[in-house]
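Table 4 source record.
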Amino acid sequence: MKIGVFVDGFNLYYGGREHFCLGQPSPPGWKWLDIRGLAESFAGWQGSSVDRVVYCTALRDKAGDPSSSADQRVYLDALLAHSSVDHIEFGVYVSRTKTGLLLSGGSQRPRIVPAPGPVGLPGHPVLNPDGTSGLLVRVRAFEEKGSDVNVGSHLLHDVLTGRVDAAIVISNDSDLALPLRLARQRVPVGLLNPSPKPLAVRLRGRPDDGAGRHWWRALRPADFQRHQLPPVVAGLHRPAGW
């Protein structure tokens, strides 16, 4: 049984950050991840082997942050040199201006900041549907675009052309609900949630849907730490702090 592995790189990375950072500086020992080694540790179908690993990401072309961009390129080159992935599919990394309500209180229980907000902060007071006031602000956000579509496209192409007999998808992006549902009709599919958050409701299903033998797992910090590339791969050194 040939297994195809399809990875949303940014979803995997930010899932790891949620496990390890918790608002603190990132500790070393988890970013230099061996994707194939990680997938093989979960490939439990009898007589199966990982045949193809597709890694979907975007290059961090972010002004003022050359170190992150350089580190990412070293990592991608190391993945290919170590045969940890077989193909890298690139989306785009873009800067966008967004408008929204100013929040406070952290990521777990954010609260709307009432108008007029902090002194000197530019914004427009607005009335919320519940009658409370809020402060509308504009922010610049950096976003990766295309990885979810690329994961779904490669998954369906490889399943429908018979290139793989089973699939493992590494993501917790609910936008993959339809490709996963279609793939499960034809081959067994395993889903690895890289985040400590619960699996997205839309990604859930039943083990006996369609082709059957599907499974769902959540990555733990130890999964990241156990499956690291060698410190030096084909002359490529693990970045400091990784």
